[in-house]
Design a protein that fits this description.
By secondary structure, this protein is α/β, with parallel strands linked by helices. It has a seven-stranded mixed sheet with strand order 4-10-9-8-7-5-6, sandwiched between helices. It has a four-stranded antiparallel sheet with strand order 11-12-15-14. A two-stranded parallel sheet has the order 1-13. Helix 5 packs across helix 10 and helix 16 packs antiparallel against helix 17. The longest helix is centred in the last third of the chain and has 23 residues. The radius of gyration is 23 Å and the shape is globular. 45% of the residues are buried. The protein binds pyridoxal-5'-phosphate. Pyridoxal-5'-phosphate (PLP) binds next to helix 5.
């Protein structure tokens, strides 16, 4: 029971530095958030010691009476958080992450080498939705299944539902996946449902990015149309890192979907559940059901709109011109800057963002944009006025990036990097630059 600072000061020191980074920086990564102290307490609890392969009341190990109680509670809260009728929907709360939840869902829904379609990665889709490149099938979803990406239109940058229907008519997928990692607009689930009905395919939504906004009923509801819905729990949902798979219990052509999903999670894809994480997910889901979370979700969207609008006021170009959700895709190409340059300069300024592909990028290796999200800033109670200030900081970061690009190799650049990265010269030197 020796506490961490004494037992392992080296690890404690690394944690302390990360605490400092998270508390002093501005977190704008759209897939991140700040989970609660209560969720972290559960995550760091003694529940990590227990093995519980199987499902509640059907485990491969003894001593699981409290773990069963926990998993049943977590499932109940997950259904409640998304306003689901337990007679029609079930949920598996054991996936370790969004990627494993997605692969388990594919394993449950289709057979190896069956065909699936997902939004292409360069257009905002996720790796686990069938991504491959001309050189390599590098994700399990393209190695074990045949996949075809659908796309956004070249002009509006919205999902091209017409082309998607035509591709599906020819490709005949068994599964279409909707949901994205970098798509600032809401989804027309009804339009894709029409296609899956026509082609006799399953419809799955990976709402990882937007699940908190869906739970708060601030976005269209994927549960109205989809057969399976997966999510991570750590993005807008604001829980610990994990995944969930929701499945319909009332599908006439797949009455055994519950069994298929449960067996796909364990034993097909995973071993023992991480019970400490399941406890933390349960804690987060209780918070999601609280009216305060709806207010939070509304503010996340209001903040993202304000952030986007302020960048437009500064003369910048956003993909789709704005946002419906928590994220903004900023096209830097008109400025002649790459996403990675601005990401680096922002890192030096204590602003955390990520480079991201924008439609029409010449190379996926050199993304021409950045992705910004307001989930974490809003968790710090930032409102529109604060976020406007953040947009102004980003404007300065871009101006600085342009200056540094012009002065590449110059003393100014070297001074900037030295001062920004030096702990001693730190804050005081930063002001001089
Ligand atoms: N699905 C989507 C849409 C995502 O954006 C992500 C991650 O960012 C994942 C799945 C993967 O989640 P994880 O990193 O928990 O495996």
């Amino acid at each position: 029971y020796t506490p961490l600072p004494e037992a392992d000061p080296v690890v404690q020191n690394i944690i302390d530095k990360e605490v400092w980074r998270q508390f002093t920086g501005l977190e704008l990564i759209a897939s991140e958030n700040l989970t609660s102290r209560a969720a972290m307490d559960a995550n760091g609890s003694i529940l990590t010691n227990k093995y519980s392969e199987g499902l509640p009341n059907a485990r491969y190990y003894g001593g699981n009476e409290y773990i069963d109680e926990l998993e049943i509670l977590c499932r109940k809260r997950a259904l409640e958080a998304f306003h689901l009728d337990p007679a029609k929907w079930g949920v598996n709360v054991q996936p370790y992450s969004g990627s494993t939840a997605n692969f388990a869902a594919l394993t449950a829904l289709i057979q190896p080498q069956d065909r699936l379609m997902g939004l292409g990665l360069p257009d905002g889709g996720h790796l686990t939705h069938g991504y491959y490149t001309a050189k390599k099938k590098m994700t399990a979803s393209s190695i074990y299944f045949q996949s075809l990406p659908y796309a956004i239109t070249k002009d509006t940058h919205l999902i091209d539902y017409v082309a998607l229907a035509e591709q599906a008519r020819i490709f005949k997928p068994k599964l279409i996946i909707c949901g994205a990692s970098a798509y600032p607009r809401d989804w027309d689930y009804a339009a894709i449902k029409k296609v899956t009905e026509k082609e006799g395919a399953f419809l799955m939504c990976d709402m990882a990015h937007t699940s908190g906004l869906v739970a708060a009923q601030e976005l269209n509801d994927p549960f109205e149309y989809c057969d399976v819905v997966t999510t991570t729990t750590h993005k807008t949902l604001r829980g610990p890192r994990a995944g969930l798979i929701f499945f319909r219990k009332d599908l006439p052509n797949s009455p055994d979907l519950e069994k298929r999903v449960n067996e796909a999670v364990f034993p097909a894809c995973q071993g023992g559940p991480h019970n400490n994480t399941i406890a933390a997910v349960a804690v987060a889901l209780k918070q999601v059901a609280d009216p305060a979370f709806k207010q939070y979700a509304k503010q996340v969207i209001a903040n993202a709109r304000t952030l986007g609008a302020r960048l437009v006021e500064h003369g910048y170009k956003l993909q789709t011109g704005g946002t419906d959700n928590h994220l903004v895709l900023w096209d830097l190409r008109p400025l002649g800057l790459t996403g990675s340059k601005v990401e680096k300069v922002c890192d030096l300024m204590g602003i955390t963002i990520n480079k991201n592909a924008v439609s029409g990028d010449a190379s996926a290796q050199v993304p021409g944009g950045i992705r910004l999200g307001t989930s974490a800033l809003t968790s710090r109670n930032m409102l529109e006025a604060d976020v406007k200030q953040v947009a102004d900081f980003l404007h300065r970061a871009v101006q600085l990036s342009l200056l540094l690009q012009k002065e590449a190799g110059s003393k100014l650049l070297k001074d900037f990097v030295r001062v920004a990265t030096s702990q001693e010269e730190g804050k005081q030197g930063f002001a001089q630059v």
